[in-house]
Amino acid sequence: MAAPAYPRWFHPCLLLVWLLIGMGLRLTNLTAKSPWTDEFSTLVFSLGNSFLPVPLNQPIAIDALLQPLQPQSGATIQDVLTHLFSESNHPPLYFVLTHLWLKLFPTQADLVSLWGARSLAAIFGAISIPAIYGLSWLAFRSRLVSHLAAAFMAISPYGIFLAQEARHYTLAILWVIASLACLVVATHHIQKRTQLPIWLVLAWIGINALGVATHYFFVLTLVTEAVVLTFLACQQWRPKNRSPRTQITNEDDINSPSPHHPTSFLSPPWKRIYAVAIGTLMAGIVWIPAFLHNAYGDKLTNWIQGDRIGIAWISPIFQAMAAWITMISLLPVESPEIPVVIASGLVMIIFFIWAIPILFNGFRTQLEKPQSRMITQVFAGVVVAAIALFFCFTYFLGIDLTRGARYNFVYFPAVVVLIGASLAISWNTLQEKIVRWGVTGKMSVIIIWVMGFLSAITVVCNLGYQKYYRPDLFVELIQNTSKVPVLIATTQKTHVQIGEMMGVAREFKFYNSHSLSAKFLLAHKDKKTNASNTLQNALKTLPRPLDLWLVNFHADEPEAIKNCVSDTQTLPPVNGYKYKIYHCNS
Question: Where is this region: Disordered (predicted)?
Answer without folding.
Answer: 242-263
